[in-house]
């Protein structure tokens, strides 16, 4: 019972991160299962079966909060399902651990780019542009394959690529990726069912992860709506960098003081990016407030020298006070 409660808590935290950052549910859950000694295929199968429920809840919540671009969802989900089914079939028979460092290097680069991009004031002139299907299709295919073979990866592959494009708001990127993952998780589960059979799923683990994820899904969808895009982008970049740095450091077999020194350096860089993001956010808000106040200031009528206040007020609405004659001198009362 204690183990199941811990798994439920892990599912809650993982979904909270995934729903607000667009990634890390599969990575967090699969890592715990692998540490517990579960086989990679069984771990990935169980996580994806739980994700059918958590991603459905997350998708509904994101939709209700207006975080979903359905055009992007339809163009990325179907290729993602194909890739996930193929990846599940492959993982059922062979291991793809050798490809981990290469993918980690790509994601690390994307994460570093996001840190740099969101540490500066955001450009809004490109937001709202259309993403082409020839970009979304291959992206979904690759992300789905990586997700099934690695026990997680749909978000870390799809979210950075869409954020780097600069054509969608971060909250809509995250909401669309989370919503599309429902289709991907279902396709991966079917692939694992064919390759491993029903015994490949650890049903108590699936139930615990599912319960925690269902509790966190609505809160995560609300959180992504209120968190500023500037801070959200910097947070996503830091998560990607640190998560994939761990894989790269392990593959390089760095030991001794070098490993904590690298982690400290990366953490310091993330902190610096967050500080710069906060400053950029403040500058942007200040500029917007000044721009909003400028028209009101320009529209305020100036009181002419030597003209009574009532005349100035009436001039603003195009009227002449009754107390003024045509010559502009006061009439006797």
Radius of gyration: 27 Å
Number of strands: 0
Mean pLDDT across residues = 75
Strand portion: under 5%
Give a short account of the largest sheet: none
Main features:
mainly alpha, 75% helix, disordered C terminus, 12 helices
Write the layout of secondary structure elements.
Blueprint: H1 2-21, H2 25-35, H3 40-64, H4 70-91, H5 100-118, H6 133-150, H7 154-165, H8 170-196, H9 203-226, H10 229-251, H11 258-299, H12 309-315
Overall description:
The protein is built from twelve helices and no strands. The protein is 75% helix and 0% strand. It is globular and about 65 Å long. Residues 302-333 have low confidence and may be disordered. The chain starts with a helix and ends in an 18-residue tail after the last helix. The chain is mainly α. Helix 3 (40-64) packs antiparallel against helix 8, helix 3 (40-64) runs parallel beside helix 9 (203-226) and helix 5 (100-118) packs antiparallel against helix 10 (229-251).
Give the gist of this structure.
The chain is an all-alpha fold and 333 residues long. Helices cover 75% and strands 0% of the residues.
